[in-house]
Amino acid sequence: MAQPVSLTRYLVEQHRKHGHITSELRLLIEVVARACKRIAISVNKGALGEVLGSAGSENVQGEVQKKLDIISNEVLIEANEWGGHLAAMASEEMDSIHVVPNRYPQGEFLLLFDPLDGSSNIDVNVSIGTIFSVLRKVNNQRGVSEEDFLQPGKQQAAAGYCVYGPQTTLVLTVGDGVAMFTLDRETGSFVLTDEDVSIPEDTKEFAINMSNMRHWAPPVTRYIDECLAGKEGSRGKDFNMRWVASMVADVHRILTRGGVFLYPWDRREPNKPGKLRLMYEANPMAFLIEQAGGAATNGERRIMDIVPTALHERVAVMLGSKNEVERVTRYHVEAQGQQAG
Ligand SMILES: O=P(O)(O)OC[C@H]1O[C@](O)(COP(=O)(O)O)[C@@H](O)[C@@H]1O
Ligand SMILES: [Mg+2]
Ligand SMILES: [Mg+2]
């Protein structure tokens, strides 16, 4: 039987054989993976570890923080502060960037994360996760500032997530396809369990929070109405629906068996482009999805082409099986054309 391939060996091969990553980036990814293992331990303890429930505080976006949001954020900050060639970090749970102190020469990477995605699922024992994105610090002549982070997603050096579900699975791209690693709890290492992940171009499964239906824009209503009409409608096939309400779990399903995920703009908060965060959620997931042959747009344009103007910027998200994402994007473009005409 072939020897299992650990995350470390996979990264060493990406570095040595394929020249895709530097040893500094390899180290950084290993530190993030180690932090995810520690978060997985807290998640698994649940009520025994007193990690469930609210922390009684709010984050910069005005959302109530769960204890596990804060614990996961601290674990990631602590692990990466000394661990891996970083200039600074940014997190969904922190108001502003965290500059890595006193390092000479200054680290060349920027790390962004949603430390705990799917917070509403923590207390009910449903899959949650950590999402991360790595950028390069473009200008190394001066100190680091928030401005350094405002790069489009296409400039990501690496991205991934770790889903804490029935298995703990780390999913990673360094721009050379998507690989999945399952945590072997007996040995404590992430083992390569899937490589060259590929999303089918067509699907019969969509993911959207249907309770927001009355607030959607017409192109989203049109797309979902057609799915719901099934065999008898214009699509000529029946669709299934799934909504975990943890983006990591919904994206993991799509990377595993295809599907389309929509979190569109809606009328509840009309001044916000969407609910999900561009830098911590949409960009890393878009990178993974594109690397697996899928597509990711905000209904108008490729997510990874958007140049952010603020760290905590929000965005509408449509991602997954290519033909479905192209269809719902086309509906948005057609609706704009009608408005303009
Ligand atoms: O409860 P809703 O509105 O359906 O939102 C679910 C979405 O919110 C999120 O939970 C937001 O993530 P956080 O838990 O990191 O705030 C996404 O993971 C998910 O897709
Ligand atoms: Mg999230
Ligand atoms: Mg979160």
From TrEMBL:
Pathway: Carbohydrate biosynthesis. Binds 2 magnesium ions per subunit. Its main location: cytoplasm. Substrate binds at D117, G118, S119, S120, N209, K275. It comes from the Bacteria. It catalyses: beta-D-fructose 1,6-bisphosphate + H2O = beta-D-fructose 6-phosphate + phosphate. GO terms for biological process: fructose 1,6-bisphosphate metabolic process; fructose 6-phosphate metabolic process; fructose metabolic process; gluconeogenesis; sucrose biosynthetic process. CDD domains: FBPase. InterPro entries: FBPase_C_dom, FBPase_class-1, FBPase_N, FBPtase. Its cofactor is Mg(2+). It holds the Pfam family FBPase. Coiled coil: none annotated. One of its GO terms (cellular component) is cytosol. Gene3D superfamilies: 3.40.190.80, Fructose-1,6-Bisphosphatase, subunit A, domain 1. Residues 6-195 form the Fructose-1-6-bisphosphatase class I N-terminal domain. Mg(2+) 1 binds at E92, D114, L116. Keywords: Carbohydrate metabolism, Cytoplasm, Hydrolase, Magnesium, Metal-binding. Homotetramer. NCBIfam families: PRK09293.1-1 (NF006778), PRK09293.1-3 (NF006779), PRK09293.1-4 (NF006780). This is Fructose-1,6-bisphosphatase class 1. It comes from Sphaerotilus mobilis.
